[in-house]
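We emphasize that the prediction below concerns an isolated chain of 243 residues; any contacts that depend on oligomerization or on bound cofactors are therefore not represented. The input was used exactly as deposited, without trimming of termini.
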Amino acid sequence: MSKEFQRYVVTRVKRAIVDYGMIADGDRVAVGLSGGKDSSVLLHILNLVRRVAPIKFSLHGIYVDPGWDMEVNVLREFCEHEGVPFYYKPTNIAEVVFDIRQEKNPCALCANLRRGALNNTARDLGCNKVALGHHLDDVIETFFMSLFYTGQFRTFSPITYLSRSDVTMIRPLIYLTQEHVREMARQKNLPVLENPCPVNGKTKRQEMREFVANLLIRYPELHLRFLNALKTADLRNLWPVTK
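Result of the prediction step, given as a token string:
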């Protein structure tokens, strides 16, 4: 693997952690594993950071099984190779979403249920932080989804305290693009499992992913510009609230 590329990627993750105070000495960090490239890269990079960080923190891999077939042993072996304990949480989320509720747009409910199961499992394991593998492309896609479908200027935060589960959600990959994550997974040969969800590739998120990909073709500096806009946002430049 290119040492320069790995150094760049790890440095960007370190920068995000420091900028938003994501990890402190003594933290127990649960990493939400999905089988996709994002969470595999997240666990691997945080493990690299842990080895050189001036603070001590622990990592714990958690896979929340919605109830469909997945090669869980691949994730278990991956965590074992990284020296990180692995926890498997079975659920009936797929049955609730697709059979009982028969959701026409199942992604939001599924994500909320999986996130709740992940946060509760992390808390039960004594973890105070939950790390998710969202990257900069996810930030931009979420912004446009909120704009187009709810009429709001919003996206997710790098760090969020969740009072209901008493854990703090962190997203250390927010300074990396999807291409950075994909290349890291390829060069390090990290596990990337096929998504068994029956609506995979047919969602509003996928539409937005294609929309942002087309924007990037026309505006190659979009990642940099968008990140700068988020970090320097001034609400005085928007309209005042109506009376």
